[in-house]
């Protein structure tokens, strides 16, 4: 018994926290800070930025109107008042479902693309509204009518982007000779904002197993262009917890009307996460951060897994935002739907060789590149010790906090085990300006002045008193990304 206990404590004594010693990507950008969920009961969210304003539109649970909000920050959209610019009509298209509006500014005018249905029928098409005036919330809106496509079939989720000087429309549509599937992703160039030029082509069908759960769906396409590539995200399967996101990629210079120009990720790139309790994430858009340096992904999901009845009758799809990270190879890293509360950050060491703090509870120095979420942490403020302290909580394993165990040793431990004041203090830090770079931060143990979280040359994360040498000061300085 004694020996067993000693062995166990020897093993747990080895558990420690590690850095990933790997160069940070060249395109790293400063952290952003938003509070999730941004907006309750708003699905298919679209946030765009124009002339210093952020605009928000989304599907409302009543499916009966088009709403707009605007604010000077993304967070400001959460409390901005909402204007209804259009309401359900008495008959015809527009008397039923109102889904997934997007607001775009094209050639000096505002356009809203929206899917409008017929009352009591599963029959929807894409319509366009044109707004004249500098502020779309007070603009005069004119219905430009329905977008004519190859077939008169189920059509929804239109979006638009410009590549190589051509304005394209992308959307989801039921294809007559694929009656077994609900919708595919379509693309066509636009002659004007309400008319496509020539025949559209399909660039993705719901053919993979994860695109066919509940319903066989590809929908909600949206484009982000970076690093010589066009990345097109879309959503797949039924709108319950199986809903998830896929990715198509094309080279910027390729012929986007040739389906062969697009390659499809064989696995979903953004899915439900039980640890963070986020379910059915999808129907996203992208917008840039206030400082213009980060890409923000906007999407909806639910805060619970199981729903009763038709998922469309459950109103609680919530609008969420989180930073989109980029890998060294120039492709996007979507990570996981992050937990509720403040959006997480990454901590990159200022030490030569850099690297990100990594969540790890094993004993040996881990090998391999960690998943993005293992290098993301929520800054709990106030920290577990209260006051002006902060604590660091794992994003991939919420409830696990960084704590000094003894001496130099730090570990990630479950918050429920931190029962005494002393334990809470040991998991709390004072946030100071970076010792070697004021743009960064230094984390001082809340109960031990002059003892800082730092990086050892081995890649181990430690608490260390510094002797004032440059290299050591750098090891205790971190950039938040
Ligand atoms: C998918 O197609 C089936 C069969 O036509 C239909 O019952 C269902 O409502 C459709 N679902 C969606 C999300 O389009
Ligand atoms: C521990 O953390 C989890 C996840 O953040 C949180 O839901 C829970 O309330 C926390 N419990 C305590 C005792 O702090």
From TrEMBL:
InterPro entries: AbfB_ABD, AbfB_ABD_sf, Glyco_hydro_43, Glyco_hydro_beta-prop_sf
Similarity section: Belongs to the glycosyl hydrolase 43 family.
GO biological process, one term: L-arabinose metabolic process
Source taxonomy: Eukaryota, Fungi, Dikarya, Ascomycota, Pezizomycotina
UniProt entry keywords in alphabetical sequence: Glycosidase, Hydrolase, Signal
Boundaries of every Alpha-L-arabinofuranosidase B arabinose-binding domain copy: 371-472
Pfam families: AbfB, Glyco_hydro_43
Span of the signal peptide: 1-28
Name of the protein: non-reducing end alpha-L-arabinofuranosidase
Organism: Achaetomium macrosporum
